[in-house]
Design goal:
Elements lengths: L17 H20 L3 H38 L11 E5 L5 E5 L5 E5 L2 H5 L12
Antiparallel strand pairs: 1-2, 2-3
Bound molecules: zinc ion (ZN).
Length: 133
């Protein structure tokens, strides 16, 4: 009967202290993680594609923003800054940056921005200030 009790016992053994073992495992884990992080060729292509897509989307956003800005300008140019009852639709307030701004409540055009003294001169914050239009 050619029964060998334990084949492995013939191999040389390695003994590690617990801290050496821990070090080895940490290095092993590090290698695994960095290998996992590396994108494959296919993943890299997807990433590149995403990047191109993001860039295209970004330039589209800029164009849209410009168009919106143009439209806002046209709306503001056409706006009489008045309510249907004929009164000016201008509201004003001092913002947290200390600047007082008066703007049209219909088209958001800022008709005044500057020192906060003007609101009191014009009859109070939030008052209708047609002199700015
Ligand atoms: Zn307006």
């Amino acid at each position: 009967m050619g029964f060998t009790p334990d084949q492995k016992s013939a191999e040389p053994t390695v003994s590690l202290t617990p801290s050496q073992f821990q070090e080895m495992m940490a290095a092993f884990a590090k290698t695994i993680v960095s290998e996992m992080k590396k994108p494959s060729e296919e993943e890299q292509a997807t990433l590149d594609n995403d990047k191109a897509l993001r860039e295209r989307r970004r330039s589209e956003m800029i164009i849209i923003a410009k168009e919106e800005e143009e439209m806002k300008k046209r709306t503001q140019a056409a706006c009489e800054h008045k309510k249907p009852n004929g009164q000016y639709a201008i509201g004003g307030q001092v913002f947290s940056d200390g600047i007082e701004r008066h703007f049209c409540l219909r088209c958001q055009k800022v008709v005044y921005s500057g020192a906060p003294a003007v609101a009191s001169m014009a009859g109070g914050l939030g008052g209708v200030t047609e002199s700015f239009v």
